[in-house]
Specification:
The structure is a single chain. The chain has 440 residues and is of the alpha+beta class. The protein is built from 9 helices and 14 strands. The strands form 3 sheets. Strands 3, 4, 5, 6, 7, 8 and 9 form a 7-stranded antiparallel β-sheet that branches. Strand 13 and strand 14 form a beta hairpin. Helix 2 packs antiparallel against helix 7 and helix 4 packs antiparallel against helix 5. The longest helix is centred in the middle third of the chain and has 29 residues. It is flat, with a radius of gyration of 27 Å.
Length: 440
């Protein structure tokens, strides 16, 4: 349950508040469903009583208004932030943005204190008191079947609320953050947040430490996204002047295996610009990256493939790239970004990276090119619904295959062509007619 003080703070950070509230509700719902089935413990009763007492105290504090000490502290924070900004000597852009941000926050905090509690804040604090009282009453009263059903539904609904809040944060932050390149061999395939663990989290921590954000108490490169990692992420986001939420998604970071040099985008086309139909958006770029320990230059094409045509391509497929002089060059699909994006007209697409088999004349670096896809026919292919694929943390895919006794086992598969919602799969021991689990 959020206290009145937390509610007052979260009003200043609506996106962070949505995530924090959803996480708190989800944790509370799951804990209630498990613990209350065994009956309330004395510790739970004490906690509920303490929560009610705290909510009452917070409501009283809101109605009484800020103390003079609170106002003096807020004014001192504004003066200190202003002095820090004034004393900057030849600051970097990140340092200047950070100083201005700290001053703005301090000024906003002072303004909020002087304005006093808004009616909505008082109502929220009163609601917290009522909720705390109801929670205490629920602990004392025995659970009914309806209450048990409600608890189970709460777990489902709060999980949906958390997912919705994360989507809202991503939507609001689209124009407030930039894609950052970091070193790593595991692609960013999910939103990394507190509680997650894996090789993608480890390489994120390695980059944070290398960038100087690993000095927080308890921080270690262990592959676990704990509170110390969240604090390091927040510090890094603050230094960039981007939205600070303590989470890192696929639109925030691009992992590459080593130093790269990216060529220019097509001249005359800017992010967010309205474009006419038929304008090609695939541009030829030169990328310098380490290959077998030696820096080498390869030529890539980054193309936008409409999401509706995603099934036409798979990594490793051959395509034809037509240069501005009508010369054809063979290419190979090196990477398909799984995260859909949207253009200025709202049409969904995925980015496809194509490696040229032979180098094009350097005069065409940065120029627009056309990409032609040749559909491939696979004969006697073993296919399953694409929705049956399970993504593995270590990479690759698997199928959940049902055994004759009703149990299921995971079988790792190699994927081939995608078509009409089905996907070609290859694996030792996988045979036609075996039942597979398709998640709903």
């Amino acid at each position: 349950m959020l206290t009145a003080t937390e509610t007052l703070h979260n009003l200043q950070n609506p996106t962070d508040a949505a995530i924090a509230s959803a996480r708190t509700q989800l944790a509370g719902a799951e804990e209630n469903l498990t613990d209350l089935l065994a009956g309330p413990s004395q510790e739970q009763l004490d906690t509920a009583e303490a929560t009610l007492t705290t909510a009452l105290e917070n409501l009283t504090d809101l109605l009484a208004g800020p103390t003079q000490a609170d106002i003096d502290a807020a004014e001192a924070a504004v003066l200190a932030a202003a002095e820090t900004l004034h004393n900057l000597q030849n600051p970097t852009l990140a340092a200047l943005v950070d100083a201005r941000s700290r001053l703005a926050v301090a000024e906003q905090n002072l303004a909020d204190l002087l304005a006093g509690a808004a009616p909505s804040e008082v109502q929220a604090a009163e609601a917290a008191v009522l909720a705390a009282g109801e929670a205490l009453g629920d602990l004392i009263a025995p659970l009914t079947p309806d209450e048990l059903t409600a608890l189970e539904q709460a777990v489902t609904s709060t999980q949906a609320a958390l997912d919705s809040a994360r989507r809202d944060v991503a939507d609001l932050a689209d124009g407030d953050r930039s894609l950052v390149v970091m070193y790593g061999s595991v692609p960013a395939f999910r939103t990394m947040s507190p509680g997650d663990a894996g090789p993608d989290v480890r390489q994120l921590e390695e980059n944070l430490a290398a960038l100087g954000f690993g000095g927080a108490d308890g921080f270690s490169v262990d592959g676990a996204f704990d509170e110390a990692t969240e604090n390091a992420v927040r510090a890094w986001q603050g230094s960039l002047g981007s939205h600070v939420d303590g989470e890192v998604g696929t639109a925030d970071v691009l992992f590459v295996p080593g130093p790269v040099q990216v060529g220019s985008w097509q001249p005359g086309i800017e992010v967010g610009q309205d474009i006419a139909a038929g304008v090609p958006l695939a541009a030829l770029t030169a990328i310098e990256a380490p290959i077998d320990g030696v820096m080498a230059t390869t030529q890539h094409v980054i193309a936008q493939l409409p999401l509706a045509e995603r099934d036409l391509l798979s990594e490793g497929d051959s395509v034809n790239v037509e240069l501005p002089d009508n010369r054809d060059v063979a290419g190979t699909v090196a990477l398909i970004n799984p995260a859909p994006l949207a253009d200025a007209q709202g049409e969904a697409f995925v980015e496809v990276t194509i490696t040229l088999v032979e180098a094009a004349p350097v005069v065409w670096i940065g120029a627009s090119v056309d990409v032609e896809i040749t559909e491939t026919l696979a004969r006697d292919a073993l296919v399953v619904p694409a929705t049956a694929l399970l993504a593995l943390v270590e990479g690759g895919y698997a199928l959940e295959v049902q055994q004759p006794d009703g149990s299921t086992v995971l079988i790792g598969v190699e994927t081939g062509l995608f078509a009409d919602g089905d996907v070609e799969v290859r694996a030792t021991g996988l045979q036609e007619g075996m039942p597979v689990v398709v998640p709903r």
